[in-house]
């Protein structure tokens, strides 16, 4: 364990709206991710951590309670506090949805169907992105993306019903939306408009992703367009901030 403590590493922003104990929990997670403490390694004592952060033991224990709840650390009576998970050990290296992704032969990301395709009334935002007229029916599909048996993303997908006739009965080909649109419906997607934003998990998605309510997450909304500029799919995916990173490659023409 690194016994060199620098005061600047433990500074608490007293003016921040984020409570001190949450800042401490985030800082400890960052230090574990950076390799200061390894799996099964014991953390410094509560007294030392409280001194380093310049807070009371009550505040420090609030931070440790958060980390215990998220199963990052475990406290053992008479032994101390130990690291039991590294947030960076399981990282899903993801790319933004691209045309190449749709054409590739690689296996789709493992997923579990949560809502088998059904006809449903889309939210106003979805209607706008799919340019649906009032009352136009849409097909909805909900999936849970998994990596090494851990849930990492919730995927909500909408299609204009007229563009995917029989979808409810047919379902997905090999659990792949892009393959189904391409091979079953012969839709040639020529453009994908992606929007990404930072967000926090609501109660429903937190439960699905086995994470804490209000935990950081990333949301990607994607509209898939045909050659005539008609949208054929709107997908909105919430990825856990804890286990996800995004890769974006730029090449010279």
Summary tags:
single chain; 253 residues; alpha+beta; Arc Repressor Mutant, subunit A; Chorismate lyase; 2 domains; 6-stranded antiparallel β-sheet; 8 helices; disordered N terminus
Could you characterize what this model shows?
With 253 residues, this protein is α+β, with helices and mostly antiparallel strands. The chain is 26% helix and 32% strand. The chain has 8 helices and 10 strands. The radius of gyration is 22 Å and the shape is elongated. Mean pLDDT is 83; it is low at 1-6 and 101-105.
What can be said about this structure in brief?
This protein is α+β, with helices and mostly antiparallel strands.
Mean pLDDT: 83
How would the global form be characterised? elongated
What's the Cα radius of gyration? 22 Å
Superfamily at the CATH H level of the largest domain? Chorismate lyase-like
Distance between the termini: 47 Å
Could you give the order of the helices and strands?
A: HHHEEEHEHEEHHEHEEE
- Fraction of helical residues: 25-40%
Uncertain ranges? 1-6, 101-105
Could you say how many structural domains there are in total?
Answer: 2
What's the CATH architecture of the largest domain?
A: 3-Layer(aba) Sandwich
Counting DSSP E segments of at least 2 residues, the number of strands comes to 10
Spatial strand sequence of the major β-sheet: 4-5-6-9-8-7
Give the class from helix and strand content and strand pairing.
alpha+beta
